[in-house]
Amino acid sequence: MNKKHKLTEKGLKKVKKELEQLTELKKKKMKGNIPEVLHSEDLNPEYLDFRQKMELLEKKIGKLEEIIKHAEIIAPPKNKNKIDLGAKILFEADGQEDHFIIVDSIEADPDQGKISDESLVGKNLIGKKVGDEVKISSRIKTVYKIKDIKY
User: What is the distance in angstroms between the CA of the first residue and the CA of the last residue of the chain?
Assistant: First the structure.
């Protein structure tokens, strides 16, 4: 069974662009100088290195194609008062206000304010509403007070 990947429109475009770039790279590599298979009676190490890099590239392309094939655009939920995928959350933690958006693990990028729905924080916030406090205990105990939710 293939997992559905719930992505934002922007996230799906990013995956498609990456696929396009890698497919183009593969074409260029295949048109370039491909090392000979044999070097005297032994396999050519340059060929083995080329083959290994091509296999990694093909694996990545296949993974991106699967993601696109099973992608579903995140639709705003019926109950916009509760946190779900695609929610932009304003919260307070340790006396500081901050925000992030909850996305599928494929789009997750904490540096960009995008956290996965499968992460410890994401899992615990799904279904919560404004005013709720969520305690997350990992190495550091943090209390998130939800201030606002937007879709």
Answer: 29
